[in-house]
Structures are given as structure tokens and as C-alpha cells.
């Protein structure tokens, strides 16, 4: 998959305001600060097409980026960020769940998980929710440049073992780093394959 064009289209507060389109889209979700916006930039080879920050809570809307004039990448706000008021938290939760449930052209949700951490309850709950609602997804382990290979492997294995208690099959997963571009080709190939099955 070669990325020839990547254009920011619109930020939407609600799935109803998202672009009306038949083009398939792939969304990035995960805890605040896990590296969603950075990974999007890494995939499209652009430094700051999506806005990133060292502080959690940077992305607050549904952001559509049109790729090669044929499909979308979508950068979403994070979940599980403690320093947000209860009201805002429930608004974001509704924004995200409505988007996942009702966005018809959603081809795959990439759920990003911090490879440095043991399985976080908020991530496990979210993955379960995706499964229960039959929303297609894959997992991307992020920031692998920041810790040892052993710890990354251990955390991934622990998550998979935990998931196996509830799931019949383990979802597809990728190991990534926005810093050294690890996983970029694999993720783009995965998207390419899904696009081929749709078109
Ligand atoms: P929100 O929009 O707040 O939910 O965060 P996000 O998930 O979009 O995270 P973002 O891409 O803004 O990255 C958060 C911080 O982590 C930034 O300081 C990034 O530079 C850093 N970061 C993201 N991915 C990586 C990575 O793969 N390696 C390293 N070393 N740092 C990363
Ligand atoms: Mg972001």
C-alpha cells in the first residue's frame, strides 16, 4: 500500500456530522495518550497531520483524513482519562459508542494498547464491548521502542491469555512504534487486504 495523498477533511463532534460517504474507514481508538494520532501520522508519513501532545486529552473530536481519495483514517479521542469531568466523560463515551455502533462504512477499528503496561481493565472492558457488538477490530500494541522486547512480549502474552478466557479466537494484532515506524508496513498491508475484500 502506497500512501500518495492524505488530507484532513473535517472534525466532527458527533457521528451524525461525519462525512456522508461510501468510502470505507479505519479508526484509531485507545486510552488517552496511547499514541493514536502519532500512529496515524506514521502511517501517512506526515509529521503533524493529526495533532499530538505529551499531555493526554489532545484529540477531542472525530477527525477524518481522506487517504488516496479512496478511504478514510479516523483519529478519535481517547478513553479512560481520569482528569476529565464526569459530564465530559459521559459525552465522550456516547460520542465514541454511537460512532462505533452507527457508522456504516466502518471497516475496522484499530484498538491501540500501550505495550509497556500489563492489561488495563479499561482496555479489556472496551475490547469486550467491541466483541459483544460485533464491531470488527484489530489490536495495535504501541510505543514498543520505549521498553525491552521481553517486556513487550510478556505484556502481549498476558493480554492474549486474559482474552482467551472470554474469547473463542484471539483478534489480529500488530506491534508498532510511531518513532521507528515499526509495524507500519504490516498495518498498511492489513488495511489494503480489507479494502480489496470490500471493493
Ligand atoms: P489523545 O489524543 O490525547 O487521546 O492521545 P493520542 O493517543 O493521540 O497520543 P499522541 O499520538 O498524541 O501521543 C502521546 C505522546 O506519546 C506524544 O508525546 C507522542 O510523541 C508519544 N508517542 C506516541 N507514539 C509513540 C511511540 O511509538 N514511541 C514513542 N517513543 N513515543 C510515542
Ligand atoms: Mg490524539
Query: How far is it from the N-terminal to the C-terminal residue, by CA?
Result: 15 Å
The CATH homologous superfamily name equals P-loop containing nucleotide triphosphate hydrolases
The main sheet orders its strands as 1-3-4-2-5-6-7
Shape: globular
Which secondary-structure class do the elements indicate? alpha/beta
The CATH class is identified as: Alpha Beta
**CATH architecture identity:** 3-Layer(aba) Sandwich
| Residue share in β-strands | 15-25%
Helix percent reads 25-40%
Query: How many helix segments?
Result: 5
C-alpha-based Rg, rounded: 16 Å
Counted up, domains total 1
N-to-C order of helices and strands: EEHEEHEHEHEH
Number of strands: 7
Are there runs of 5+ residues with pLDDT below 50, and where?
Answer: none
Describe what you observe in this structure.
- With 199 residues, the chain is of the alpha/beta class.
- The protein has one domain: 3-Layer(aba) Sandwich (Rossmann fold), CATH 3.40.50.
- The protein contains 5 helices and 7 strands, in the order E-E-H-E-E-H-E-H-E-H-E-H.
- The protein has a 7-stranded mixed sheet, with helices on both faces.
- The model has no long low-confidence stretch (mean pLDDT 94).
- Bound molecules: guanosine-5'-triphosphate and magnesium ion.
- The site of magnesium ion has 5 residues, from helix 1.
Write a concise keyword list for the protein shown above:
Rossmann fold, seven-stranded mixed beta sheet, 21% strand, binds guanosine-5'-triphosphate, binds magnesium ion
Question: What is shown here, in short?
Answer:
This protein is an alpha/beta fold and 199 residues long. The protein has helices at residues 36-44, 86-102, 121-132, 149-164, 184-198; strands at residues 6-12, 25-30, 62-67, 71-75, 106-114, 137-142, 173-175. A seven-stranded mixed beta sheet has the order 1-3-4-2-5-6-7, sandwiched between helices.
